[in-house]
Amino acid sequence: MPDLDDRHWLQQAIDLSRHCPPTTTAFCVGAIIVSPTAEILSTGYSRETHPHDHAEEVALAKLTPNDPCLATATIYTSLEPCSKRASRPQTCTQLILAAGIPRVVLAWREPTIFVDCEGAELLEAAGVEVLELPDLADQVKQINANVLG
């Protein structure tokens, strides 16, 4: 069940996605990794440092691998983490699982424009708590209007 902190942090991730360089071939996504004590551990957004960057990937890359803080963190992402990817060897879902993050909060399930995404299902099957706040999805859709057509 969402609380006010979940809404706050997910809104921050959505706002971060507004910094993405626009393109018609990928979504604009923001991600924030937060500790249980409300400390921002890392942030990222799509195409932040490279045209193929995904938000969750960028946020995780800014942290030390196996950082013990990740075992209790939540990653807030404006769009469902990818489960299929051509541009990099690992998907964002795989990266989240490898990092050991136990909780993911998202606003919008990825539509089947580019791939049939199963990120939320794969995360849940691996024991990760996945919380969707679909009432925030309209903001994400507006930010991605150039992709949606």
Automatic annotation (TrEMBL):
InterPro entries: CMP_dCMP_dom, Cytidine_deaminase-like. SUPFAM superfamilies: Cytidine deaminase-like (SSF53927). One of its GO terms (molecular function) is catalytic activity. Residues 4-130 form the CMP/dCMP-type deaminase domain. It comes from the Bacteria. Pfam families: dCMP_cyt_deam_1. This is Diaminohydroxyphosphoribosylaminopyrimidine deaminase. The lineage of its organism: Bacteria, Bacillati, Actinomycetota, Actinomycetes, Propionibacteriales.
